[in-house]
Amino acid sequence: MTDININTDINTNINTDINTNINTDINQEIQSIRDTVDFLQQIINTETLKQMKSNNNNDYQTYLIQLFPTFYESYPTLFNNIIQNKDLTFLEQMLEGIVKINENQDLKDSIEKDLGEKLAEKYLYPNIKKK
Fold first, then answer.
1. Helix (H, G, I), strand (E, B) or coil at 45
2. What is the pLDDT of residues 83-128, one digit of tens each?
3. Are 10 and 57 found together in one domain?
4. Maximum CA pair distance of the chain?
5. pLDDT by residue (tens digit) across 52-74?
6. How many domains does the chain have?
7. How many CB atoms lie within 10 A of CB 40?
8. For residue 44, which of 32, 54, 29, 34 has the smallest C-alpha distance?
């Protein structure tokens, strides 16, 4: 085997290992987000937290930030949407889209278009006055 073939084999193996690690890391991150969202939703739906929120919203937010500091720092908008009980209908579709794009970059345009259309159907089109 020549040096060129050996180097090509090594590069192919390294690239495969790197891509596998990136895919694994992203999939683990997505699963971590899902798990944390589920856990956070369980906590905010307890009677204790509901009462805290109704008594003092600032204490409620501060308490939850202290419970989930890393999640709050990494995903502040998502965190705030969760604790304010905002609509998370599209969150799972977005996370699944990230996984699919990570596995096959060629799907990026179609996934973005599909999600954009679904968001427009829910939020944009209903607010546009028909002429």
1. coil
2. 999 988 888 888 888 888 877 777 777 777 887 888 888 778 888 8
3. yes
4. 74
5. 999 999 999 999 999 999 999 99
6. 2
7. 19
8. 54
